[in-house]
Amino acid sequence: MGVTINDIAKKAKVSRGTVDKILHNRPGVSDEVRAAVLQIASELGYKPNVVGKALSHQKKPHKIGVIFPAKSVFFEQLQSGIDAAHREYEDYGLVIECRAMAPLLPSEQLRLIDSLRSEISGLALVPINHAAVGERIDELVDEGLPVVTFNNDIKSSKRLCFIGQDAINAGKTAGELMGKTLGGQGRVIVISGRVDMLHLSQRTEGFTSLIKEEFPDIELESMRAPHGVEGPLRRSMVSYFEKNKAVKGVFVPDGGIAGLIGRIIGEAGRKDIKVVVFDLLGDTKDLIMEGIIDFAIDQNPFEQGYRAIKVLFDYIYAKREPEQEYQYTDISVKMKYNL
Asked: What's phi and psi for 314, nearest 5 deg?
């Protein structure tokens, strides 16, 4: 006998109604509970019958293409969500083809899209915010191929929906944390990494707008720190923090450089600086425990990966449109005692 919704509910210690909402991708459940229930369902080997008898007679397999940046801790967590969804739906003939993108350039993303387009029934991708990528997405949609963006969105495309964090409100959350922690006073440096990802610029937009509106006495400055910064640039940044005692806060919207910036602040002996970052990648957890990073805003990559596949599965197999164009995941604040 197969695993039932009741089995999952008992193990997860939630109601059957909650499990049903989660398995059918309906709102009204926190991301934390959703992720836990999905993990339990995957461990139990649950196989949902979400599209009824018609699906059981459908013989044609379908392939979903997935494109996201090359391996990192964040994208390993995202991949685990993709894998969990695949295990649920593989009995229906679903195949997942993942392509890791390196380098993170529009030309490389276009190449990967073109390498998949003739063999897939749907595409989920973390898009680079570039006009050529948006145009290619529109081409696919015009050809009848559904496209879902996740983790990062792209402006003005015909994609089916976006799955990920509300980046502007996440940035505002970071701004409120910073402003209240500093008592509304001091100089804060916003350190940016990549500039071609929409969600990173939106986090900065949300952060700066909140600070200017609610904490006008905080002085904001900007700094660039490209990924992989080492050598002279790293030493100059250490020197900057050593000399500029007026700096009281640092905001890092790009989780890919959060650990690096934390280490630089530590090397400068500036544990007095209040640091707010995104994502629990690399050294970030250790730096929180060491008291160098104060807050990290997590965005539940497992849920993003799982939901991207589920939305495409429902659309391809059951012609079920997503209930919302923007499917936001929780804004979760992590600190030393809730890691």
From this structure: -60, -40
Is the pLDDT confidence value at 296 over 90?
Answer: yes
Across the beta sheet with 218-224, the strand order is 218-224, 186-192, 247-252, 274-278, 295-298, 332-334
Provide the pLDDT confidence category of residue 233 given band limits of 50, 70 and 90: confident
The rounded distance, in Å, linking the Cα atoms of 316 and 201 is 32
Residues 6+ apart with CB under 8 A from 1: none
Residues 338 and 336: their CA atoms lie apart, in Å, by 6
What is the predicted pLDDT for the residue at 227?
Answer: 64
pLDDT 10s digits, 307-324: 999 999 999 988 899 989
Evaluate if pTM is beyond 0.85: no
Place of tokens 């969105």: 153
Rounded distance, CA 203 to CA 137, Å? 24
Cα separation, 131 vs 127, in Å, equals: 11
Evaluated on CA atoms 218, 222, 227, 233, the torsion sign reads: negative
Q: Write down all domains in the chain, each with its CATH number in brackets.
A: 1-46 (1.10.260.40), 167-298 (3.40.50.2300)
Average confidence (pLDDT) over 275-297: 95
Two tokens at 225? 């720190």
Number of residues that this document lists for the chain: 339
229 falls in which pLDDT band (50, 70, 90)? low
Evaluate if residue 6 carries a pLDDT over 80: no
